[in-house]
Amino acid sequence: MLNKISPQKKFKLLGEVTMLLMQSRLHCSYFIADIYSCILPPIDLNQFRIYRDRNNYPVGFVCWAFLSQERESLYLQGKYSLKIEDWNCGDCLVFTEFIAPFGHAKKIVRDMSHNVFPHKVGKSIKVKQKKKIESVKTFYGKNVKKNFT
Prior knowledge:
The protein is an alpha+beta fold. The chain is built from four helices and five strands. The termini are far apart.
């Protein structure tokens, strides 16, 4: 069952994610509209994880969608922007944001593959500056057998 977060927690979380966006050279040029379309939907749907350091400061944020094959294909080519109804329209796991401006990426990926999605395969877009797509990355949960045939 979906646990809605309280408005107070949502405001705090949005502030923390905005600070992470500002610290990331890949994300610092986001507009308010980007936060509205890329960050708020997964927060409202509880399809995110925020990572904290020992002092409870935010150091990373990941969010994801479950897309249909058609929407996944278009999204991964950079030909489609997600609408609210897209976030849970299928079974294809796609990581839509991965923000780790302080060097915690490996720890975050390990947690995602061991604890959050150990039985799933997912994809994400690796972007350059100005949101140019560099490549599509495949994520494997720790219990997924990789086929390279």
